[in-house]
Amino acid sequence: MLVIIVLLLHVVSIKGGPLNVTILSDPPKDSQFCENQEVILVCHANDVTKPAYEWFTSKSNLSDQSSSITVYAPPISLEYYCNVTDLVTERNGQASIVITGNGSPPLIHKTNYEEVLTTEEGNSVNLTAEIVSGLPLTDGPVWSRLDDSLPSKAVVIDFMVENKEYSSIGISNLSFGIDSGNYSLSVSNKCGKTTSFVFINVKDTV
Prior knowledge:
The protein is mainly beta. The chain contains one helix and 14 strands, in the order αββββββββββββββ. It has two domains: 19-99, Immunoglobulins (Immunoglobulin-like, Sandwich), CATH 2.60.40; 107-203, Immunoglobulin-like (Sandwich). The protein has a four-stranded antiparallel sheet with strand order 7-9-12-11, with no helix packed on it. Mean pLDDT is 89; it is low at 1-14.
């Protein structure tokens, strides 16, 4: 009888409590992920002798059974789980992390012009666009003219109004045959680049 009691106590002491499991992500979880951005998830358990890993989501089991997996941030939140079992002590534990790829490239809203602007020689134009980006801009706003440089008289101004970001280009005393062309406004963030176009058609007054 004493032998049986000792063995039972020994088994309990080996199994112990649940494993302390954590999941880290690269890039870090506190950053905003772009849709379909590659994210590496690393599963870690403390005080484990011989770990076995199992990854799954609320929708399916994942085939990878290593300590780290690569996923692509979905546009709708998805929770990833890592279950760790110590094959020696039979202890196990689980952790989860929610990944959402809700970051997107910037948006450009034309506020006072369309895709084609027709005016006469000698007139002036002032085009203004609102820049909408949930992430910090990495480049721009940049105005340019396709296949040519901006006219020397062009004036570009970036400004804020009530926490909204705008960019404008003004060209005075337009010249027929010189200032006509395809103009563009480009902005970028870590999720991509957006370019908006406008064709300025300067008509001869003669």
